[in-house]
Amino acid sequence: MWSLLALVVLAITVVVAMNWAPDQPVQKLQDRWATAPSRFVSVNGMQVHVRDEGWAQDPVPVLLIHGTSSSLHTWERWAKDLKADHRVISFDLPGFGLTGPAPDNDYSIAAYLRFVQNLMDTLGVKKAIIAGNSLGGEIAWRFAAEMPLRVEKLILLDASGYDFKPQSVPVGFQIARIPILAWPMDFLLPKSTMEDSVRDVYGNPDKVTPELIERYTAMTVRAGNRAALRKRLRQLQAGEQAALIKDVRVPTLILWGGKDKLIPPEYAERFHQDIAGSKLIMFDELGHVPQEENPVVTLAAVKIFIQ
């Protein structure tokens, strides 16, 4: 009996040792993930990770908003190209990336709208072309519906907003929803869990590289982000304001991955129907993060739309 118990304890010890990944302070991650032109801007009591690039005098900058558990890095290829002709602003939302958790633990869409408004004010942006992916897409269209005078054009990439029914949910999101796993989740992060989660949002999982897994892992273990994700998911009310989508009156481009299993393509059609005059482009081979999976082809459509 004692031998069996010893083996169990040994097995648990080995598993914990192999998957040990406690929170990391933001200062430890900055050298690798906040290189120039990154800077930190004070907004709503947070030090927000921002990249503000390109034509500084641009009267209508391009504002890029990432999705759940992502970061401004998802837009790097877009920003590199767009900054030749535009001012391009990307940033880490509260609860994600290097910005980290919100002091008030409010991760409602209303709180994110106030945050984006205050960030724009801080950066001196009166009006912007706003693009958003997933959660960032919901923030973008809600902003356009409620503050249309501050939005020149809108670009939605696999946006949330309806009470959608996923075909598949990344395993990391599934774990974050289970209260009993909350404490272990703050200290353990199996490499396979992160890899499976990222592969799940790509149309072609073979495009997921070790470098990509390293980045998503670093953003996950930023101090406070795992707890913030749990709080965000508890505050999630899918489809609560879907009726407002019809209030969007700015020119809108909808880009969608035909292989998106998290928010399937049928919801792209609903956005297209509900937003008058919108244009929809479906990328049959891409998944939930088309701007990251194939920045070249997605950006080509965007440049035509905004220029």
UniProtKB/TrEMBL annotation:
GO molecular function, one term: hydrolase activity
Keywords in alphabetical order: Hydrolase
UniProt xrefs under Pfam families: Abhydrolase_1 (PF00561)
InterPro entries to which the protein is assigned, alphabetical: AB_hydrolase_1, AB_hydrolase_fold
Boundaries of every AB hydrolase-1 domain copy: 61-295
Protein's recorded name: Alpha/beta hydrolase
Organism from which the protein derives: Undibacterium luofuense
